[in-house]
Structure prediction request, 77 residues.
Amino acid sequence: MNEEVNIITLDDGKDYMVTDELVINNVKYLLLTNEDDVADFCIRKINNINNSEYLVGLNNKDEVLNVLKEFAKKNHD
Prediction:
């Protein structure tokens, strides 16, 4: 099975694969995994400003914990 993998280069210059996507309360979150180190991952949300999409980090601990919980629920076997 060949799936197309979306690659995003973040401000740190590292390339991350879009591993998963999730929408919570009309906000789209991306789970990103470093191409070179799968133990290195991060979560970003998409902000729409003037019809352009921007990836933004999560600065609120409660938001991070909630999004991690929802990703875990979504991917639970």
The chain has one domain: 7-74. The mean pLDDT is 91. The two ends are 20 Å apart (CA to CA).
